[in-house]
Amino acid sequence: MNAWLSLAARSHAGVPVDVLVTLTLLSLAPFVLVMCTSFVRIAVVLSLVRSAIGASAVPPNAALNGLALVLTIVVMAPTLRAIQHDAIEPYAHGRITQDAAMLRAAAPLRTFMLRQTRAADIALFERVAGAQATPSQGIPAAVLLPAFAVGELRSGFAIGFALYLPFVAIDLAVASILMGLGMVMLSPPVVSLPVKLLLFVMVDGWALVCGGVASSFR
């Protein structure tokens, strides 16, 4: 009986560890989504477009985040396919270990991040973290992650600035017209908001914005 219990304990010893690793990976999924994918740039651009239109609550945050998530999946599709082929499928068939699967899954993600990251940002965080890239291990994660995040924020704000200018021009034009007509008691946003909405719909603005931000990734 004791021998049987010992054998059963050994056979199930790895189950709690696997469950712990799985729960840990699931808890890190939002962090990976924000820090290692195209989500940040897309979410920043969509939020700035909504702010430029002047409708602070439309579309709601849930709709913007959902659209940003869908666009992230589209942009990251080649990377996700590489992870599926190189890491998930071999691990599911038992050809590689869990550690090897994680290393293989990280490689396409690092390649994507490096394509979007400027050398100046990498050099900055190498000085901050006191870590240097090595031929064997490449750029440390403590350097690549913040460099990639800062670059994505910069790109998102740059695209948002370019998209903001036409809406500012409409606001200025409407304010000038109202002042010239002597309608100083009428708030300019009351008139400019429907004008901006009409023009944005006429040029199919959401499709242009989504296509533009998706094509901005290398």
Task: Write a compact overview of the structure shown.
It is built from ten helices and no strands. It has helices spanning 2-11, 14-35, 39-53, 61-75, 77-92, 98-116, 119-129, 141-180, 188-202, 205-215.
Number of strands: 0
Main beta-sheet strand count, sense and barrel state: none
The fraction of residues assigned to DSSP E strands is under 5%
Distance between the termini: 62 Å
Roughly how much helix do the residues carry, as a percent range? over 70%
Low-confidence stretches: 1-15
- Summed over residues and divided by their number, the pLDDT gives a mean of 79
Shape: elongated
Counting H and I runs of at least 4 residues, what is the number of helices?
10
Rg, nearest Å: 25 Å
Find the structural class using helix and strand composition: mainly alpha
What sequence of helices (H) and strands (E) makes up the elements?
HHHHHHHHHH
Structural overview:
With 218 residues, the protein is an all-alpha fold. It is 80% helix and 0% strand. Helix 3 (39-53) packs antiparallel against helix 10, helix 5 packs antiparallel against helix 6 and helix 6 packs across helix 8 (141-180). The longest helix is centred in the C-terminal third of the chain and has 40 residues, at 141-180. The chain is elongated and about 75 Å long. The relative contact order is 0.12. Mean pLDDT is 79; it is low at 1-15.
Attribute tags:
10 helices, single chain, elongated, mainly alpha, 218 residues
Topology (elements, then pairings):
Layout: H1 2-11, H2 14-35, H3 39-53, H4 61-75, H5 77-92, H6 98-116, H7 119-129, H8 141-180, H9 188-202, H10 205-215
Helix pairs in contact: 3-4, 3-8, 3-10, 4-5, 5-6, 6-8, 7-8, 8-9
